[in-house]
Amino acid sequence: MNSLRGLCRTLLHDRADAAAVQAAEEYFESALAEALRKGSSPQFGQPWSPQVQPDPESGHRTVLLALAPTLLLDGIWLSRVAQPATAHHPAECRLLELYCRIVGLDDPAASVPLRFRARLVLAGVYLPPVADPGFFLAPGIPDFAWPQPAAQLCLLHRPRSYFPELLGYTLARSLREPDWWDDHDPAEAERCLALARSALEACPDRDEQRVHAGWTLYCALFAGLLGEAADQSSRRLTAREAMVRIVQAKRAHALGHHGGVMLAERSLDRWLAEACSDPGPLLDILRDSPFADRVCPAGSRLIRAMDFGGPMFGVFDAAERQICLDWIEDGDRNVSPSANGSAYVPSKAAPKPSQHPGPRSKRALYTALLQAESPADMPDRATQAVERILRIARIAMPFQRAYHRFFPYDEAAFHARIEAIHRHEIGRYRPLAAPLRIGKDYCHGVILQLAPAILVDGCWLAGIATAAESLDTLNRHLMKIYADELGNGRPERNHPNVYRRLLADLGIELPPFDSDAFAADPRFLDAAFDIPIYLLAIGQRTHSYFPELLGLNLAIELSGLGAGYMRAIDMLLHHGIDPSIVQLHLSIDNLASGHAARARDAIVIYMDEMGRKGGPEISRRIWKRIWTGYLSLNIAALALGFRFQPSQAGRLASQTERL
After folding, report:
1. Taking the C-alpha atoms of 521, 526, 528 and 530 in order, what is their torsion angle to the nearest 10 degrees?
2. How do residues 431-456 score in pLDDT, each as one tens digit?
3. Which of 40, 61, 379, 557 could be joined to 595 by an S-S link, Cβ 3.0–4.6 Å?
4. Alpha helices (H) along 103-238
5. Across the chain, what does the average pLDDT equal?
């Protein structure tokens, strides 16, 4: 069971390789089978409560610690459900909106996980943030707390493979009756339940049996979690049993610090090394040693070492210190189990699978990236594609002119550059002059060639969604952009769906965009896949390329604002083509309060943070990476952009003859 801690840590912190994801799938399948074997789940689709309810009076702290991994990761399984290949579907749109509500994207004070964190603080329970790997090592969290988070993190990495189960799991979560550990907002809970039901109803051909299995899994895991917590909180440990657990939890980190402390002619380090399976002998010798004063336990050298100025100050919290006092005075005394830690045994690292280069052609790579559910599924060639574009951008940086020229960062200069770019683009706009050199066939050709990119609009931010605690101000800016691109839960506002309507209006019929047939369509130029491959790949490697992603995001949101979009709208209207997709971006990307403003502000926040943490030299290097990302959009678009030049209009228009 302890190995689930390590698995959860790996799955959450974006280090999951194929072996880790496979281990998660195996666990999920076994947990599902066990839940179905037991049966007796609450009635499907009805409000429910676990039968066993822990007593808040006798085990308040114990229950909160046990619930922490599940409730602090509440909604995590929905964070990647709206993927580039699926985000246009109504069910996934509803689930994305539900995720945004759970994490409080627009109002952090409404976030369910953040409210639970506040409850922990009020109860005096300290745990590291879930973004800190130390969270998974916290000895206060019992081993039985990890099965449900493991299931949630498996769904995070396999939202399509287990989509029916995910629907049932989400419905069960939304219908669980609140209890004393929940900071419940009835109105918000009703909205979340409505979204969960709406997502289920949006799948008319769903596999009911698998949906019910997901429902059963959530109910079984949560009820099992509470049952274990109730059992632990009601059972009174002796002081000696509590000390055994404390030693087991801290022993590994204490080794090496006590070589000069002698007990019965042996160093304490040696005693600790031999206490792996049974700390009993160590505790017996320690209690009879000069370090423990049974007459005056508070005056014991062991206790004084825990006080301010002592060599173990900060190692034991107040509850653990009290257990030590009780143990010195009377080892058989019953104590509260609330502070007892559980031993953490790291799991053995799963063997790393052999690496394969993946698909060779860019068309096949496009399809492979769309089919990837998890960063662990990304072909190696996708990373190579990202590195190639960034390498070219770095080489080209010294030769950039005008507004693409690199400049030293300071906030005022950065704001001035962005404003100058915007003013320049606005100033370039001129109404169309007749006769037009660009005909309707050319417009059709451009719309066709942009389909592979615009049908995955927003994909470069697909890896931003995560646990509520990890969505700081910077990431919330990016997440709001991503949610806007996908329609904020409304399929008709989903940008790729707006483009689909344009394609349909023009009579351009295409295979499903995540199919091999789409990528192989001879009407597409090979260059049409350069941009989407880059965007899809960098969206799966958010943490590896975060500075570059910030610059790329700024370039995307600024591109077209002003003359570019305004001329495109004029041209489309002139030829009787619906300009909605361009008008949408012209308005929503605005620099006053839209995506361009959020992209700019995200960079300012990040540079401030890097300056505080790393100082001027680190800031300079980070800024260069950001500007490399900014330039990378033009690099990725070079080949297709060349084909869009008016001199190439005849060749591009010929592509539409096959429509």
Report:
1. 130
2. 888 777 788 999 999 999 999 999 99
3. 557
4. 112-122, 147-157, 163-175, 186-201, 208-234
5. 89
